Amino acid sequence: MARRFPIFPVLLSLTALLGAIGVSVAMPANAAVVGGFDFDRAQVSVTGLQVPWGMAFLPDGSALVSERNTGRIMQVRPGQTPTAVATISGVSASGESGLLGIAVSPNYATDQWVYAYFTTSTDNRLVRLRLSAPTTQNVLFSGVPRNTIHDGGRIAFGPDGMLYVSTGDAATTANAQNLNSPAGKILRMTPDGGIPASGNPFANSRVYSYGHRNVQGLAWDSQGRMYASEFGQNNLDEINQIVAGGNYGWPTCEGSCSNPSFRNPIISWTTAEASPSGLAYANNTLFAAALRGTRLWTVTLNGSGGAASALAQLQNTYGRLRAVAVGPDGWLWVATSNRDGRGTPVAADDRIIRIPPAGVSPSPSPSVSPPVDTIPPTTPGAPTAFNVTNSAATLNWPVSTDSGGSGLAGYNVYREQGATDPLLAQTTSNSSTLTGLTANTQYQVYVRARDGAGNLSGNSPTVTFTTTGGTTTGGCSAAGTVQTQWSNGYVIQPLTVTNTGTTGINGWTVTFTLPAGHTVTGSWNTTLTVSGQTVTARNVGHNGTIAAGGNVQFGFQVSRPNGNTATPSGYTCTSP
């Protein structure tokens, strides 16, 4: 059961305090002063960004902002047009993945290092570069499992000078509890990407805490205590106080639970209220940027680092909020994420909003308008696949809009496939029938809108479907991929179950045949029964419901005689 906390504003009366020392401060009526910042004086300071994700500051007071879908690092100053200062090579942006976290070295004045975390076609990885030579990008750490969802991505230097990296479970829940996997963790490493000589809880490991689903916010309070914001699955989002070696319970727990092996969050919200990404700290208060909740949560801390109270600010004012940071100017900077395919952008999006410290009477920031005809269309919504046959499939998706003046021209349909995603079709409507597909093959497809000036939107969420060809009965299909193998064993991951019908299904069963002498030695996200060489896999509680055109994944491990290279066959899926 989630913990409940009183919700009330923290009001700081600075007028009387400053008046006592002879300073006159004009405060608006009913000023929303929370955590030391005056939210009634919030200003739009930067416009025209494309899905900003991370934010870090240079010594000159400007901010570096990572753009998830473009792979660009933008330098921004209040009231000025953003400028691209670097483009990260190898970024594969699809769904929630792409260029994510960014950090500036604490010793930037002498070493000039900028750090970035991003998704490639094969993994998530950490690089560093200098803005004086932005095409030279040194890989510090790689091999973190990737997916179109749950890639984590926040990076930040702690007060100990170490670099902390949050990773998601990459939609494989077993990763979170596996200490040999970097996924579903908070990692602690040296500025060179190595394992610190001391302070990490597990020998010869970068793992600092585990049991995480998808951490996207990191912050430290004035006492050096660490906090992380984390997405729940369907019920509860969290802010956790992070300790070395702590297990935060995923996938067993979402929110608080009674298992003493797991650490409970200091506060939780429903996913509709939060979906928290960026996290910042100032004045005994945590600030959590909420995406689905379209608000900024302010959480006042008590003496032990728990939550004393919480209050929502900027609710339904600027849309989806992704990043938050306290700038060197003392203002609170908040970045929107309305062009990420899930928001409703206005012409100026994406934006950075700045909130002044209480007691400061700021001058209005100059208005900055996005350049004409450089505004891409809004990102299409998630496609749906239906009428899937052995050689064709029909897709449709929610329409995009264009505010740049040149008008919406149509859509491009791509297959997600490695470093270069092939173009499958172009259409002027929000539907397309793909032909010439290969039978019994899994396709992951996404859509980008284009306008009359040639601007392309971000990538829509992907839809996964499998063409027919002997493996489909009922309303679902199954296709397995050999992830890795060795002389006497292998892993099938992912085995993707796709709803090939036009309505949702609730429950599925996959059967397949093991070659002679092969034995299942483990599985995840499924319940297996074995009869001879026939294996039956059934859904577990959290992955039985699949929307039309949607999919879920599970995996298993098999031992086999040395030298035998055969793999399972005859994948067949049925649903109620």
From TrEMBL:
Residues 379-470 form the Fibronectin type-III domain. SMART domains: CBD_II, FN3. The keyword Transcription regulation does not apply. GO terms for molecular function: hydrolase activity, hydrolyzing O-glycosyl compounds; polysaccharide binding. Residues 469-576 form the CBM2 domain. GO terms for biological process: polysaccharide catabolic process. Keywords: Carbohydrate metabolism, Glycosidase, Hydrolase, Polysaccharide degradation, Signal. It comes from the Bacteria. Residues 1-31 form the signal peptide. This is Oxidoreductase. It comes from Acrocarpospora macrocephala.
